[in-house]
Amino acid sequence: QIQGSNQNPSGTPTTFSPTSFLTVLNSGNVGIGTTGPGYKLDIRTTSANTNTPVDTAFMFAGSNGIPAAGFGSRLLFSVPNSAAPTTPQVAVSVGAVAEAVGAGAEEAGLAFYTPAAAGSGTLSERMRISRAGNVGIGTTGPGEKLDIIGNVILSNNNALYSYTTGAVKQ
Asked: Assuming Cys at both sites, which of 25, 93, 141, 142 could form a disulfide with 134, CB separation 3.0 to 4.6 Å?
């Protein structure tokens, strides 16, 4: 367990009460905000406010210049490589992606990535939720609430209803 101390502005060390900030168990489980992590990474926090989300983790990808559109931090998920089962193979990713950049007014969307080809380590963006709340599949710039580039298959009734025109297309 790692416990904390801090140096106040006068330079005098200030010791916190014995509160664990980080716990690493023999099993390899790591806990932040818990002394009994049940997962490889177990982050816990509590809040008296039950009406708003609680920020639990933060990822930041810095830049030495003005970030370009598409820049951002991603979380990678992997599966074992079948040729080398102890070697991770990147499978999918999700992350923040800059959409409007410049002059400190950056805005971001949320992008989802999958491999460009079978066995490829190169990830391609497949879906995005834009800063405006539009969802795009097959496009990085969705212009409507749902913007799909490519064919769509509908099951069961195979019907698409348009509230604008009142038309049903089958």
From this structure: 142
Token pair of 158, please?
Answer: 């195979």
Sheet holding 30-32, edge to edge: 2-7, 13-24, 30-32, 41-43
Report how many helices (DSSP H) and strands (DSSP E) the chain contains, helices first. 0, 12
The CB-side HSE value for 140 (13 A sphere, CA atoms) comes to 12
- Six token digits for residue 58: 């933060």
Instruction: Give the C-alpha separation, 107 to 130, whole Å.
Output: 9
pLDDT tens, position by position, 110-162: 999 998 887 777 889 999 999 999 999 999 999 999 999 988 877 776 666 66
Residue 91 contacts residue 75 (beta carbons within 8 Å): no
User: Which tens digit of pLDDT belongs to each residue from 15-60?
Assistant: 445 556 788 888 988 988 888 888 888 888 777 766 767 677 777 7
Q: What CA–CA distances, in Å, run from 156 to 37, 139, 153?
A: 45, 26, 10
Is the pTM here over 0.85, yes or no? no
Contact of 92 with 113, CB cutoff 8 Å: yes
* 35, 38, 39, 40 alpha-carbon torsion, rounded to 10°: 50
